[in-house]
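QA checklist item 7 of 12: single-chain prediction sanity check.
[x] sequence parsed
[x] length recorded as 86
[x] structure emitted
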Amino acid sequence: MFTVINNFVSYYVRQLELIGVVMRIFSFSLVSWLGPDSPFMFVWVFNTIDAVILTWCAIVRKDPAYTLLNSFWILVGIVGKLRAGG
């Protein structure tokens, strides 16, 4: 299963990274524009998904700095979802 996913990520790594970055820009822009009226649960779920995409791409590319950075964002997303969920 992971081999199939890794092959897919390897083949489309540039496109997936671009999608992940655009997702992150969108989620932070949403919070910046809407402030306290932001749909925080949506933002945290969306942000965690982009962190998973970018982490997987970094792992496939064997980039330890971005693997660590985006793994951190996964943890931030989990904490954010817990806090947003009450």
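[x] summary fact logged: The chain has a mean pLDDT of 93.
[ ] second reviewer sign-off
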